[in-house]
TrEMBL record:
This is Replication initiator protein A. Pfam families: RepA_N. Residues 29-87 form the Replication initiator A N-terminal domain. It comes from Candidatus Avidehalobacter gallistercoris.
Length: 116
């Protein structure tokens, strides 16, 4: 049975919405969940940058709760929390907890020499 939901990608096809996936993630010793989570955070950071969520030190401030990530990744809370922890341990993100049920402020990090 052929799946009629998908059509061939042609030269004049419109590009559907996509998620930028940084190439430097591919060789890193991280789970695929952590890599996809980083790509989601990277996408969110672009939106935050456009909306002016910039700290005094010019870093981009973003908010992405475990619940939001869990829904986007379609994974359990435990797997999602583990992916956040992997990214923190690797140095790719820094989370600053705010307390009182408020979401953590996340700072995304990229390898040295990769920023414009």
């Amino acid at each position: 049975m052929q799946n009629n939901i998908f059509i061939p990608y042609k030269a004049d096809s419109a590009v559907p919405p996509y998620l930028p996936f940084p190439r430097f993630l591919i060789p890193l010793d991280l789970s695929n969940d952590a890599k996809v989570l980083y790509a989601l955070l990277f996408d969110r950071a672009g939106i935050s940058k456009e909306n002016g969520f910039i700290e005094a030190d010019r870093t981009v401030r973003l908010y992405f709760t475990v619940q939001e990530a869990k829904e986007k990744l379609r994974r359990s809370r435990q797997v999602t929390t583990r992916a956040f922890q992997e990214l923190e341990r690797s140095g790719l993100i820094v989370r600053r907890k705010q307390g009182l049920g408020r979401p953590a402020v996340i700072t995304l990090r990229i390898p040295a020499g990769k920023e414009d």
